[in-house]
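Page 42, continued from yesterday. The earlier attempt failed because a stray header line got pasted into the input along with the sequence. Redoing it now with the clean sequence only.
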Amino acid sequence: MLANYDLYSAADASAVHAYLRRSVLGADGTTPVELLTIDGPEQLKGVEVPVFAAVPLSLFTRELREHWGDYLSVERAAVIADVALGPLLELWLSQPGSRFRYAFIRTEPAGRVLPFLIGAVEVSGVAATHLLLKPLSPPAVRKLKAAFDELDPENSQLVADHELLADFEPLAQIVIAHIALEEVRFALAG
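This time it went through. Structure tokens are written below.
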């Protein structure tokens, strides 16, 4: 199951609601998708399968994290970068011993190419953030690669790492497939 978090009102963490997406196998062999509104973590206690979450970075506050508890842990939740990365990278990489591990991947849902930047911040070799995903266009991939090369020509803090996905399994596959319109095939780009 995958929970998506949407903003109704930014007043407090309880104003952010989740939608639980559940696929069930029908008697006729089809796989209908159900969307259930979830107002708080207490409604998920009876769910007997793992729940993974995709949360827009602009909503990922300390209050939201505390309200939803373990459902937003690093192992169960990915963050979708819906804000500019430049200022965030500057902040994250200002910490001594920090680096941004990343990979560019692509999927082809419904016959169109959909690239992603995926990444995570590490401090002194230990993962310090959630898996971060940013859907891109092909020109945006080229732009980001050039920017990364210019910002860190020695790749000491901006580190291309295609093993990153393996560190976040099964979360990475589930969230990427969900964001890419349920497409489950993807390959590393460039």
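Notes: DSSP finds five helices and eleven strands in the chain.
Reminder to self: strip header lines before submitting.
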